[in-house]
Amino acid sequence: ARMQGRVTLNPLAHIDPELRPAAKLILDMTGKMPPMTAEALPAMRKGGDAFAVPRLADVPVEERTVPVGQGPGGVAVDPVTGRVFVVMVKEDRVTVVDGTGGRILARIPVGRGPTHLRVNPNTAVVYVLNTEEASVTVLDGRGLSVLATVPVGEYPIGIALDEEADRAYVVNNRADTLSIVDGRTRTVLGTRRIPR
């Protein structure tokens, strides 16, 4: 019998801990997860006039376990949409889960050997590292489709984002290089050697 991978969801996990009580109130009132940043809701952070914010310890948080597929690996959350993206290492795909409802929204095929991923919340673009294919699959996190597959160096294993510049920095372990991927053009802007 094959084991089914599972992910436990906490719809408020991606929210700044100080803002979770306010986020819970908005979620309860509207049914939608708000984009919660200190800049977006300063009155809530201070407990100002907008809401009487309960203490975090007083806010019940519902958790769910959602079957997502075989070999779940990396996970990333889009704090704007509340969508959870889970790499399925054994299935070469990404499972997308509604972080508030726990429902599977999509299963998107990606390259061979996906491991890590990151979401740019400014653009809703998801970058998935395909270690066995030496590529990055670029996903539309709102439309839930593949935008491009970008070749990078051998065995991409680490990724960081510059959200404002819309760039992904990919460490290619076996090539000893860093690939800089432009999120707008979905091309490699440059490759730098990483000294050993």
Secondary-structure topology with pairs:
Elements (H helix, E strand, L loop, with lengths): L4 E5 L10 H11 L11 H5 L17 E6 L2 E6 L5 E6 L4 E6 L5 E6 L4 E7 L4 E6 L4 E6 L4 E7 L4 E7 L4 E6 L4 E6 L4 E7 L3
Antiparallel strand pairs: 1-2, 3-4, 4-5, 5-6, 7-8, 8-9, 9-10, 11-12, 12-13, 13-14
Question: Any overview of this molecule?
Answer:
- The protein is globular, with a radius of gyration of 18 Å.
- It has 196 residues and is mainly β.
- It is built from two helices and 14 strands; from the N terminus they run βααβββββββββββββ.
- Residues 36-59 have low confidence and may be disordered.
- The longest helix is centred in the first third of the chain and has 11 residues, at 20-30.
- It has helices spanning 20-30, 42-46, and strands spanning 5-9, 64-69, 72-77, 83-88, 93-98, 104-109, 114-120, 125-130, 135-140, 145-151, 156-162, 167-172, 177-182, 187-193.
Provide a brief overview of the structure.
The chain has 196 residues and is mainly β.
Task: Give the number of DSSP strands.
Answer: 14
The sequence of SSEs as H and E is EHHEEEEEEEEEEEEE
Number of helix segments? 2
Query: What portion of residues is helical?
Result: under 10%
Structural class estimated from helices and strands: mainly beta
| Shape by Cα distribution | globular
Widest sheet, order of strands? 3-4-5-6
What share of the residues does DSSP label as strand, in percent?
Answer: 35-45%
- The low-confidence runs, each spanning 5 or more residues with pLDDT under 50, are 36-59
* Rg for CA atoms: 18 Å
Mean pLDDT: 80
How far apart lie the N and C ends?
43 Å
* Biggest sheet character: 4 strands, antiparallel
